[in-house]
Amino acid sequence: MPLIAPYFPELALAGVALILILFARRISSPSFALAAVLFASVLSAGLAFRAPVADEFARFFKILFSATLALSAMLSLRRLSEEHVPWSEYFSLLLLATTGMMLAASAKDLLMLYLGLELMALSSYILVGIERDRPQATEAAFKYFVLGSFASAVLLYGAALAWGFSGGHLEFAAIADALSGRSLTTEPLIGVAVALMIGGLAFKISAVPFHAWAPDAYEGAGAPIAAFLAVGSKIAGFAVLGRVCLTAFPDFWNAWSLILSILAVLSMVIGNLLALPQKNVKRMLAYSSIAHAGYALLGVLGGTPMDFASTASYLFAYAFMTLGAFAVVIRLGERGEDLTGYEGLAEQSPWTAGLMLLFLLSLTGIPPTAGFAAKFLVFRSALASGYTLLAVLGVLCSVISAFFYLRVAVLMYMKPALRDRPDRLSAPVALALGIAAGVVLLSGVFPESFSEWGRMSTSAMVPFEP
Length: 466
What we know:
The protein has 466 residues and is mainly alpha-helical.
């Protein structure tokens, strides 16, 4: 029992996924299936909170993944009805993808890391193309699969090199011990192993130049799946990145911090610049998520758990403000996917426009929202670690992002309405919007609370440096 106890949250999700598959013919209502998924997510979060887990790092991310699953499932019900998606397959894949995310985040060895990431990836490929009647979804799924397979191969090759140079060790701590005191000057292939593993994980977080899949996948997939990928896949990638860099390769900080700083600069600059001309809101949010990957990377550069704590806090805020923005897109239906669909929205649906404004302000980093507190933490971490230029660049890129975020606000509040009023707000979407908005506001008003949780999540990874 002690060996399996840390995996109770994953078993809960996988068990409900199996039930939905086996009893699909007996469960006649997608609403019942949604209730089962919500039950699984609450149970999983409760088990992660109370049951023994690998460490506080795993606990933090398992609870965050459970919340992401619940909100994504609530946002999906309307889409399932409109596109006639097989709901048993859909919800089962959501559960399995989240199971993979949890396994990857709690992994302490190369084998579990790879199994978790592949379970997440394979489920995600199918989810992107699950709307079989839409050619855009099929095309996006194929591109995602091809690029994702290549990234997985790169990651696996890097892991194989790390395994070989460590003398056949799979555990991160054992790899770190085996490589301690060794130099990249005399053994440059160790640096190749580090670079390959980071390259494979950079695909998961959609960092430039490994970002090409994200805009097409987000635009081609249904909005609920785009939201799930934008949040879940990215956070899982960062969780694994933190594990690998801080626990497997701590002695090679100079090498991987240089790689990550380059990825951060490219992601912040290119992500924001490419978001400026976008007319499709999902595509704009895709490039926005690329830029946010760059901001979050700033917290990893210092090379200590205290620095990564700022990234963990950033990911927490990013999850809810991004899911909230996608929730508004889903609430508006097809109208919400094009910028012109937001013209006059404040006149037709003041609450919807107000919530969208809140999420856009948070994504920009304007107080008193979670986005401001999160950016403050990662910029402060970068400054404390000596990356002053990168912190300044992050602030400048945030200013650039205001142009495309607040452009939506201008359309909502300063343009006349040219389309019919949005349909009535469904209860699941309303609940998801309320939860996301509440977290974004409370985390901005009380930033110390959520930043403290981020700090606690990394305190047990490795000893803090004095």
